[in-house]
Amino acid sequence: MSTLLLRLAAPLQAWGTESKFERRATEREPSKSGVIGLLAAALGRRRNEPVDDLAGLKFGVRVDKAGQIVMDFHTALGPKQTYVTKRLYLEDAVFLVGLEGNTEFLKSLESAVNSPFFPLFLGRRSCPPTGRICLGVREVPLKEALLSEPFEASKRNDEPVNITLYMDTDEVGVYRQRDLPVSFSQAHRKYTYRYIKTHTQQHNGYKTEHDAFEGVGP
């Protein structure tokens, strides 16, 4: 099995798995439904088209920079009254996302993300990505790909850092989240649950031979 790697970074991201009336929340890390929506947009799929093939990919997230939650207030004018909505965002976060599956299918997704049919956003239209999203296909399983990829967030030195992985699992009884899409149709949106297992491990950092002071001299 191979793994497609995506770098998700932006000033603001929003990965909602539930929204109640005027409050639009976000999870602390990318949701599977949000990333599948991004891939479907890259492929040019409409909301009423199936996403079973995308939902079947094994999904994992590495948190390189957790960011912080910020709240934005929107004033909306209704037919009879004006009301305020509260929208939460993740500010200044960086994630490495992996999707494990068939190599040829992942390569088609890689091409689509690099030349998307629809514009790509990180959860909401107000959250365009920063820099290149697709890092390519690695011919290794999901966990190995997430652990071996160089650190994506900036840091002050090359000391090892602790990173956390959130990965799909078949183990019943671990944390579950309702963000596995069955249909994105506006007439009948439907999501189901998936089980998630967390894993924390030390990461070696950048893995680079570059010396910023090489040309300066002694």
Descriptive account of the structure:
With 218 residues, this protein is α+β, with helices and mostly antiparallel strands. It has 4 helices and 10 strands, in the order E-E-E-H-H-E-E-E-H-E-H-E-E-E. It has helices spanning 32-43, 52-55, 103-114, 142-148, and strands spanning 2-13, 19-20, 23-24, 58-65, 68-77, 82-101, 134-138, 161-169, 175-183, 190-203. Strands 1, 2, 3, 4, 5, 6, 7, 8, 9 and 10 form a 10-stranded mixed β-sheet that branches. Helix 1 packs across helix 3. Residues 207-212 have low confidence and may be disordered.
Helix count, per DSSP? 4
Helical proportion, percent range? 10-25%
Q: CA-to-CA gap between the ends?
A: 48 Å
Class of secondary structure makeup: alpha+beta
Could you give a short account of the major beta sheet?
A: 10 strands, mixed
Strand content range: 35-45%
- Gross morphology is globular
In sequence order, what are the helices and strands, one letter per element? EEEHHEEEHEHEEE
Low-confidence stretches: 207-212
- The value of Rg in angstroms is 19 Å
Got a strand count? 10
Q: How confident is the prediction overall: mean pLDDT? A: 89
Q: How are the SSEs ordered, and which strands pair?
A:
Layout lengths: L1 E12 L5 E2 L2 E2 L7 H12 L8 H4 L2 E8 L2 E10 L4 E20 L1 H12 L19 E5 L3 H7 L12 E9 L5 E9 L6 E14 L15
Parallel strand pairs: 3-6
Antiparallel strand pairs: 1-6, 1-7, 2-3, 4-6, 4-8, 5-6, 8-10, 9-10
Helix pairs in contact: 1-3
Short précis:
Helix content is 16%, strand content 42%.
Main traits of this protein?
4 helices, single chain, 10-stranded mixed beta sheet, about 220 residues, alpha+beta
